[in-house]
Structure formats: structure tokens, C-alpha cells
Specification:
The chain is α+β, with helices and mostly antiparallel strands. It has a single domain, classed as Archease, Possible Chaperone, Chain: A, domain 1 (3-Layer(bab) Sandwich). The strands form 2 sheets. Strands 1, 2, 6, 7 and 8 form a 5-stranded antiparallel beta sheet that branches.
Length: about 140
């Protein structure tokens, strides 16, 4: 599994890869939260549960990221660990983290939302990739 970010004009691209589609979605979430916080400093003390359903797998990825953002914001959490189960075009997942501590988590930039810009979800050479640009 791997997560990474990439430059995109004034915004930031996030990409997750994994052996399964679920792993790619998990790593995509890690990439997004790494834009916001030093996630290696975030401990898994609290958990939020997410359910999404979409018309296609690409929209499911965007919905997953945006629902995580909204729930984390409502609860004041920095997230660093994710688990996903995908059944067709339905997703059940969790995000784990802790209450935001500015000194500990060193916030970077605010991510306003995941977008459909450069959105791709695909399999290549036995690896799944999920990517999009997030609005910062």
C-alpha cells in the first residue's frame, strides 16, 4: 500500500494505491489527511464510521473522502488510520484518529473538499489506484 500527493495548480492531488480497491481508498484517505496534518503524530484514540453509496466507483471515492472530511470536522478529529469494505458501489469504512491538538499534529493546510478533477480509479499491473484533486 502507498499514499502520495501530487501538485495541481493551486490545489493538491491525492493518490492511494493498494493490492485491492479498498486498500487504494484507504491510502487515498491517508494521502488527503497527510495534506492537513503530520499524520504520523496522530494516534488512533477515536473512531468514526462512514457509509457511502454512489453510481460509479469514481464517485464513491470522492464521496468517501468528502464524508470523512465532514465527519472529522464535526468531531474535531485529525485522522490517520482507515479501513474500508466495498461491496459493489456501497462502502463501509472507518477513520481512526484523535482530537486535533495544534502543538502535536502541526496542522498544515485546510482541505475544503475532494473534487472530480483528475479523478481516476483503475487497476494497473495488479495494483489498484484511486486519485483526485482536493481543494485547499
Amino acid at each position: 500500500m502507498a499514499c502520495e500527493t501530487f501538485e495541481h495548480e493551486a490545489d493538491v492531488g491525492v493518490r492511494g494505491t493498494g493490492a485491492t480497491l479498498a486498500e487504494a481508498f484507504e491510502e487515498g484517505a491517508r494521502a488527503m489527511f497527510s495534506v492537513m496534518f503530520e499524520i504520523e503524530r496522530v494516534e488512533p484514540r477515536a473512531e468514526i464510521r462512514i457509509r457511502c453509496r454512489a453510481q460509479d466507483v469514481e464517485s464513491l471515492f470522492v464521496d468517501w473522502l468528502n464524508t470523512l472530511l465532514a465527519e472529522a470536522d464535526i468531531q474535531g478529529l485529525a485522522l490517520s488510520g482507515f479501513s474500508v469494505r466495498i461491496d459493489g458501489l456501497a462502502l463501509e469504512g472507518t477513520g481512526r484518529g484523535e482530537r486535533i491538538d495544534i502543538e502535536k499534529h502541526r496542522p498544515k493546510v485546510e482541505v475544503k473538499g475532494a473534487t472530480y478533477t483528475m479523478l481516476k480509479v483503475y487497476e494497473e499491473n495488479g495494483r489498484f489506484v484511486a486519485q483526485c484533486v482536493v481543494d485547499v
